[in-house]
Structures are given as structure tokens and as C-alpha cells.
Amino acid sequence: MSPKSSKLSKLIFALLTVSLLTSCATVPTSPTTNVNSAYTQTMPIIDRTGRIAYVEEVSTVKGKISSLYTITPDGSDRQLLAQIQGLIFSPAWSFDGKKLAYAVQLPKSHPRIFVHDIATRKVQQVATPKGASLSPSFSPDGRYLLFSASQNGNADIYRKSLVDGTTERLTTLKSTEVQPSYAPDGQSFVYVSDKARAGRAEVYRYTFATGQTRKLKSGYSASPEVSRDGQKMGFLNGSQASVMTLATGNVTNFANTGLDEPARLSPSGRYAVYPIGSKMGNGSLVIRSLYSGVSYTISSKTGGRMRSPVWGVGSDD
């Protein structure tokens, strides 16, 4: 890395760290009214004591302002974790609910990955290859982080040890491999590739022991994530927020979100969450029972677009 690139990288990291830590320390939380308590009181305890992380985006004359929030499933106790002028992508919970990983893109820079400790509010940049780094996913034991990185215009999937810092490239094809997400057994992950046909994203599963891959969903599909019990997968099916039962391949489509956003599953796998809205804003989150079909919504804090919700367990579970 040249001295100029090194200086720029350090400056970006310093500015981002100050921004994140300042937002965590000074921004108050919203009122704690249980706006949907009648719906959540019958949820499994692992769901109702969990938290949903999501991103709100507001456009200003100086560009987008992105805010990373967490909120309880009844819509109360909204807490601001980070706020920047730029973009925040694809937050992902650790399996114990104690950390969030996400990608941040500041103006005129590539997306970089950060890990946010919920209890200490410490934010740490994860060293990744040059180019854009996106879609982090924690291993179940918290020792590794999957992510995609683009070098020389080609995106591949990498695994980074959070213990010793080593990084391993897992895919080496000329096609595009992105959006990795660990399976709960830690022995495989799901991801998106266009290797069957250039430009057509489809979902695959990669097995660590063999390095072999298997297609899970044909046709345009993206943003997969396997439920904690390993039985279902939330994803984007065409333009629909959807859930697949992995044993049968049956797919349930919920809604065209208007934002090309996938469904994400609750810790129990009994509920799905996804955003709806328009690209002009006025977004909300929908929480829907996979069994009764009953749903309710949580409105945005700022009136902006709500994106990338992900439902984690309570940190004491």
C-alpha cells in the first residue's frame, strides 16, 4: 500500500470511529411504549426477548444519512447504534446476540466491514482485502467472519479468523460470489452466485469439509439466510420477500417490498421480518407469523427508508 493510500485509509477509519462512538454516546433512545405488546406476548421467549437491528436512510442535500438502530419486536426501546453520512449495509448478529457486524461506505470510498460490541459500544474495523467488502456473517461459535470482497472487479467469498486475523479465500471462480451466510451448524454456508448464467443470481450452499457447492434455488434469488434451527431460509425470491422450507424446497412469498429486500427469520423460525416502503421513504417493518399469517408493522423513527432488518437473540440468552 502506498503512503498516500495508507494515510487515506487511516483517516477514513478515524473519522468513522469518531462518528460511531459519538452517536452511541450522545443520542437518546426513543420512548419505551410497547406499541405491539398484544402481538408479541404470545411469541416464544427467544423471539420476544430478542432485538431487531435495521438501517434507516434519509436523503439530504449533502447526501444520504444512514442510521443503525436496534429495537424490540414490539416496537419499543429503539436504540441508535451508529449514524453516518454515507451508507450502512447488511447488519448481521452474532449467534449470542452480543455483537453486530455490518459494512459502511463513506463518500468516495469502498465499503468496509466493522464489528460493534453491543455491551461496550466498541467499534472495530475488520481488516479485509482491497476493494469493496460486504455481507459479513458470524460463525456460530463467533470465531470466524464470512464476507464477500471485490478485487479487480471480481467478487469472491472469504473467511476471516477473529482469533488470529488470518484470511482465507473460499471461492476462486470467474463468476460473482457474494452474500455469504453461515448455516447454524457451522459446517456450511449459503451464498449467491451467477456461475450458471452471467448476471442471474441464484442461491447455493457451500460445504466446508468438501469445498463442494449445491444449488438451492434456481431463478433470480438473493440475500439468503438460514434459520437458527436449520430448517428454513429467508431470502429475496425475484422481487418478493420469501421463506423456503429447506427439506422440501417449498417457497412462501410474502410481499413485494418495493425495495428488493429479503425476509429474515426470528430466532425461533416462527416469524419473519421484512421492510416495506418506497424509494422515497416512509418505510416500516412488517413482522409476520409463518403459521397464522397475522402481521403488524413498526414505523420508522425518521420517516426515511427502513432496510436490512435482522432478528437476533437477547444478549443474555
Structure description:
The protein is mainly beta and about 325 residues long. It has one domain (about 5-310): TolB, C-terminal domain (Neuraminidase, 6 Propeller), CATH 2.120.10. It is about 10% helix and about 50% strand. The strands form 6 sheets. A 4-stranded antiparallel beta sheet has the order 3-2-1-24. A 4-stranded antiparallel beta sheet has the order 4-5-6-7, with helices on one face. It has a 4-stranded antiparallel beta sheet with strand order 8-9-10-11, with no helix packed on it. A hairpin with a 5-residue loop joins β20 (about 265) and β21. It starts with a helix and ends in a 5-residue tail after the last strand.
Major sheet: order of its strands? 3-2-1-24
Low-pLDDT regions? 1-34
| Domain count | 1
Mean pLDDT: 87
Query: Mind telling me which CATH architecture this is?
Result: 6 Propeller
Question: What's the arrangement of secondary structure elements?
Answer:
Elements lengths: L2 H24 L10 H4 L4 H4 L2 E10 L2 E9 L7 E7 L1 E7 L5 E7 L6 E6 L5 E3 L7 E6 L5 E8 L2 E8 L5 E3 L7 E6 L5 E6 L8 E6 L5 E5 L3 E6 L5 E6 L2 E6 L5 E6 L7 E2 L5 E8 L2 E9 L5 E5 L5 E8 L5
Antiparallel strand pairs: 1-2, 1-24, 2-3, 4-5, 5-6, 6-7, 8-9, 9-10, 10-11, 12-13, 13-14, 14-15, 16-17, 17-18, 18-19, 20-21, 21-22, 22-23
